[in-house]
Design brief:
By secondary structure, this protein is α+β, with helices and mostly antiparallel strands. It has 26 helices and 28 strands. Strands 11, 12, 13, 14, 15 and 16 form a six-stranded antiparallel sheet that branches. A five-stranded antiparallel sheet has the order 2-1-5-4-3, with helices on both faces. The radius of gyration is 40 Å and the shape is extended.
Amino acid sequence: MSERRTPSGDAERLRLFSAIIESSSDAIYTKTLDGIITSWNPGAERMYGYTAVEAIGRHIELVVPEQQRPELQQILERLRAGAPVSGVETVRRTKAGRDIDVSLTISPVRSDDGELIGSSGIARDITGRKSLEARFTLAIEAAPNGMMIVDAGGRIQYVNREIERLFGYSRDELIGSPVERLVPSPSRAAHPGLRAGFVAHPARRFMGVGRDLFGEHKDGSAVPVEIGLNPITTPDGLLVLASVVDISARKKAEDDLRRSNTQLDEARARLEHVLASSAATLLSVPLSPESPTRAPTVFSLVTEGVTRMLGYSVAEVQGPGWWQKQIHPDDLDRTLHEFENVLSGRTVSLEYRLRHADGSYRWMNSHPTVVRDYAGRPVEIVTAVIDVTSRKNLEQQFQQAQKMEAIGILAGGIAHDFNNILTAILGFAETASAVLPLDHPAAESLEEIDRNVMRAARLTRQLLAFGRQQLMEPRVLDPNSVVEGTGKLLRRVIGEDIRLTLSLGRDIRPIYVDPGQLEQVILNLALNARDAMPGGGSLTIETANVDLDASYALRRPAVKPGEYVLIAITDTGTGMNEAIQRRIFEPFFTTKEVGRGTGLGLAAVHGIVNQSNGHIWVYSEPGAGTTFKLYFPVTSEPVEPDAGDRSATPAAGGHETILVVEDEAEVRQLAAGALERHGYRVLVAANGEEAYRLAANNADGIDLLVTDVIMPLVGGPELADRLRASRPDIAIIFASGYARDAVINHGILGADSIFLQKPYTPMVLLRKVREVLDVRAARLKLRLG
């Protein structure tokens, strides 16, 4: 009687199959004969990282690395021929770009009428197993003894190089052949029975002690050996790991045996010496097989390296509960949990802090390993512990540098927008002051506006300095001259109860730094020192030539080895703890009372020093004062003379045509008004597109373009390129709230571009305009002859 399939039965089977596929941890998918994916289960999503929506409809090459494509084509050809593919181990690539090892089983899919329409595949992630196999192979290949794996049927599955050396056979000759091939001919008949007895009772370890054992070399000679057998239970059955030791020397003569024992004692002594002098400390924790301890309580072995590493004697470390008492409380629970993972067979890498004998904490790294007896019970944990405090400190420095860089970008963006606002306020205040009589009631208010705008401008300069985006005007200068000049000002501002000492080194090398910003750095640090000495004290500023060598650079990864000038600023104030020192260069962080500081002073110092290719470090302890050390790279160029201040130069007018492009309405109105009042013909646009149309319709020509750099639609640089194509003689001034260095370093402007930093006053704009137009006129005159 044949079975009848009902629609309800088919639906039930379909639901069952769908549930199996959906719940499988393996990747299960189907594809066309051409390799186009048609289904993709959750296991495939987890394994490869692509959702079903991302994968379905795409070629299976989506998860196949380039080097595996030829293999993929062979698989597809076999499937098109209707042949299944089973047990193929290969490499696939996840969406995150990580290569994983997989085992593939792929079957053809046919329609109800038998037509071949595609294939279904099951992929299993075997990365862990492959990694374990690789580590096992590496370990067994490096073993000094001959190592061999034999299956229960007596077939050799693996041999290491030492086996090849001992018996004279190559690996290819041995793998797959009976193990009896290595047994002397007279004993071969009895050997299968011995092997079967071991397979049946693997707990009986056979070491060959007290009997003469021989293997047979390929050339027929006898090889005296000692053999250790260990059972390995695998999903495919029992395997036997044989350790084969050549004992020819012992068999040669008793005298050689005694000599060997002497050498062994010497080797043991050398090993103890190596362990004693090693940077690592070897620890051993005994475990009770019946009730294994979950964490170290008593160490049965401690090498002498612990004294150098942590300052304790071996006897102290072996005391009951020492480890739990010395580990940092914040690391105790986490580390205890990891020890449980070790006992469960997982490989872990532990990092935790242990208290040094001097009271400080040091970071330790260890890879504990469980030693088990023949029955598989844990009897001991062995681990080597090394001090990784230096590496952890370098990681913290790198993370802090990344954090400061991100905050700097944010600070620069805020300062850019704020500079646009300040330009308008400062400009309109100056314009109003110019038309009002001095005794007008509003004159004093306008002066107050001007003073507060300048305070705000200084604040934005600090933000830009912190973000390394401040406009810099560096020149080659003598550091001692800047320190001496700043020292005269400091004597008036730090107070009479603080003693200022300048200790300037001889023949100090020149440095390439903005002198105004260097003065700001020294002033900020000195004022901070004054606040740290409310009862008075000493402030010392010293200079010196220093050579930071490669060993110093290893401790400070941001430093390039070379010659530097050191400027050290030391106070005898209250000092700082480590927590405050880690944050002092963050913007808006301050320990001062509310209203007594913005928290930008040291952030600006950090930004200026780094923007000048220098480095700054702080050394402080509570109650012991603070030292800031500034390092600036030296230059071989001669010191440049001070060009002086020409900010008070009166601005001249003109008659030329100027196109002003600015997306901020207030700034646009300010610039256009100032230029028109000085006789210029002004065209105004709010963005690049509008400016280009305006220029195209202006037949009289345009002499100068004054444009903001960053604007919606079309920015200043693109607008300038368009206008130059039809007006090659046009002069161009770029203006921005970002600093010149920032827009040039990001590739927005060329290094030779004429730049106007916001905020600017109408007088500054007029002087820059006149300067640029005069240069243009001179060039045209020279060209025309």
